[in-house]
Amino acid sequence: MKPRRCGYIRGSIAYGMKDSPTNFSPGSPVALRLAEIVGESNVFTCPEDLIPYGFDGTAALKESAVCVVLPRSTEAVAGVIRLAAAEKIPVVTRGSGTGLSGGSVPVEGGIVLCLVHLNRILEVDPANLTMLCECGVITKAVDDAATPHGLFYPPDPGSMKISTIGGNVANNSGGLRGLKYGVTRDYVMGIEVVLPSGEVAWLGSKCVKDVAGYSMKDLFVGSEGTLGVITKVLLKLVPRPKARRTLLASFDTMEAAARTVSQIIEKQIIPCTLEFLDRKTCASVEAYAKVGLPTGAAAVVLMETDGHPAVVGEEAAAMADIARENGAISVEQAADEAHATRLATARRSAFSALARIRPTTILEDVTVPRSRLVEIVSYVEEVAARHRLDIATFGHFGDGNVHPTILTDETDHEEMERVELALSEIVDKTIALGGTITGEHGVGLAKKAFLPRQFDEASYALLKQVKRAIDPHGLLNPGKIFDLGTAH
């Protein structure tokens, strides 16, 4: 059995590419034209310069890049796309490369369009609670720019200190605050996008109510670079919460932790954060971050409420009571802001902590209805035992998003075969529980083999119809999400 993650189907006809590879060497016609568009210093073709662009944050997915272009304006992006369209060259758009589905892994013979230099915040508009920025702005910088105005940008993916807002929009990224505040899509009011033809379109507005025509911006949010290149984003901001309380509860069973979460929601308390770590994750994080996490508990739940000070106090007390009623071993409230930050940072460091254990760390991403959380976590433990694998689990208890994290070694082909079998079984169980194969990482290359299991035939065909209508030659991020087949 060939591991799914160690390669993916390539094919110039299926992707609408030319049969003969493009010559990107310095002095070639294409290289010269790219240099005219973006400047010679912004075109990389030397092998040593291309190495960092051959992979993203996804384990075991790599492809050598042959040409990387770093435009510094929308006009330059449009020029590159027009050239690619004329020459039938595939283009893969890239931000910081933190993706976890292989979405920005290069395509053989294509251009990697890296947008990190489009990094300006163009406007903060407190009167309309919006911000306009370029796609290469770092996610945390968006919230930092909103703070002096008393405003808040809630989406907070784990990579927020390095991921770009354009990448967040392209993947509809979530985060720890998703339960209360939603995901990236909920904050996108407008986008500027370069279409596969090289035309530039603006979709959306500052208006809270806007139903003129199809909601086209929503089609591009989460499209993973397969329909267009997002260059600017108009974001909704909200008033910054005036108070926050953080609690940490530990339990001797995952069932008790899940009951606590369910009852918190049933009491109509919607915390901004309800996160969990299993025993293995907790021990790894404590060894890494040393913030005083209990390492003997079967499950640790991080609970955070924000809003008006009086309401925050009531909700924190109620959550602590619910945890104790469900047999919590301990319930700790952060003593101050610094302590709260340490606890939240500990949760955000779960992936980094686990990545220290084995050479390869595969961070998976499935979501089930909240009522089925215990079933999926228990099933992951069963699968790990059956396939003799080291799997830690953490995630967003509040919204049902679970991250089974497989600690392995991609050079051990026999073990990787067991990894593939385990992943396939976890996906099947997720779908059987009414879940989805990805809650926030996207499909990309890593999950495209699983997508037909979740979609019915008509829905899956509709995806391809949309792709063909907007990108008829299949040149934008080809082979991601699904294989288009022969171009029409």
Structure summarized in a few sentences:
The chain is 33% helix and 20% strand.
Could you explain the architecture of this structure?
- With 488 residues, this protein is of the alpha+beta class.
- It folds into 4 domains: 4-117 and 465-470, Uridine Diphospho-n-acetylenolpyruvylglucosamine Reductase, domain 2, CATH 3.30.43.10; 121-239, Uridine Diphospho-n-acetylenolpyruvylglucosamine Reductase, domain 3 (2-Layer Sandwich), CATH 3.30.465; 243-351, Alpha-Beta Plaits; 358-451, Alpha-Beta Plaits (2-Layer Sandwich), CATH 3.30.70.
- Helix content is 33%, strand content 20%.
- The chain is built from 16 helices and 19 strands.
- The strands form 4 sheets. Strands 12, 13, 14, 15, 16, 17, 18 and 19 form an 8-stranded antiparallel β-sheet that branches. The chain has a 5-stranded antiparallel β-sheet with strand order 5-6-10-8-9.
- Helix 8 crosses helix 10 (309-325) and helix 13 (373-386) packs antiparallel against helix 14 (413-432).
- The protein is globular and about 70 Å long.
- The chain starts with 28 loop residues before the first helix and ends in an 18-residue tail after the last helix.
- Residues 1-16 have low confidence and may be disordered.
List the helices and strands and how they pair.
Layout: H1 29-38, E1 43-44, H2 47-50, E2 67-69, H3 74-87, E3 91-94, E4 111-114, E5 121-125, E6 130-134, H4 139-146, E7 151-152, H5 165-171, H6 178-181, E8 188-194, E9 200-204, H7 216-220, E10 229-236, E11 238-239, E12 243-251, H8 254-266, E13 273-278, H9 279-289, E14 299-307, H10 309-325, E15 330-333, H11 337-348, H12 350-354, E16 360-363, E17 366-367, H13 373-386, E18 390-396, E19 401-408, H14 413-432, H15 451-454, H16 457-470
Helix pairs in contact: 1-3, 8-10, 13-14
